[in-house]
Request: fold
Amino acid sequence: MKKFIKGIAIAALAALTVSALAACGADKQASTGDSSAAQKTETKSADGVITFGTNAEFPPFEFVSAKGGLIDEFDGIDIAIAKNIAESNGKEAKINNMEFDSLLVALQNGQLDAVIAGMTVTDERKETVDFSKPYYTATQVMIVKKDSTIAKASDMADKNIAVIQGYTGETAVKDLGYKSQSFKKGSDAIMELVNGKTDVVVIDKATAQKYIADNPELKVVEDNDAFGDEQYAIAVAKGNTELLNKINEAIDKLIADGTVNELAAKYAVSEE
Reply:
């Protein structure tokens, strides 16, 4: 199971009702103080604001919440962490929602200050951005129908595999030597599975737990030999040491004072 590193208890995660992640697509856009979730790409904010990019299709880390029956703001573990980081630096967090594979480009172009999106640290990404200290340890799993014969990763060899564009699962399947169909949203891939148009979805475990909670005809299949651990961290522009240091200090504090544990308990889903 995905677990927060250094101080995040597995028990806390087991109690979670996460709306997952995702090491990791979306069409809505909003700021933390704006009730509108309409998508837009905004330039990096001025003093007093830290602009975070995310992909609000990855529960329980980032998703669009509904209050009073209206879709009006972003929520999730990553969103709460972003707000805490901004607050600890005397600033406001502004959330820009965009497709996952556009996030690092927007960061490099100066449209964002940082990216927090259940993003896995990889050597390829480290070539273009700098990462904070990790705040979450994740792994990939397979989502299948309950009557599926898939019991391990090698059973996917002759199956129709769905992945999310830009997510770690896409790379993991490719590394196994299998072909897959990519979707921009996890929810779209899940609908393909529910409707019998694909055989398996490969995605981050916490997000998988959320999807099966919403779709009782599905189950999670794990294969720790095929899918190793990965770490989520916050990305900043290459060389932005000042902001990176502030983010790292905030992460250390959030872990030490128990805030991360509280967020885990608030958002995670049970594995029952």
Q: What stands out?
A: The longest helix spans residues 241-256. The chain has two domains: 10-136+231-267, 138-221. Confidence is low (pLDDT under 50) at residues 1-43.
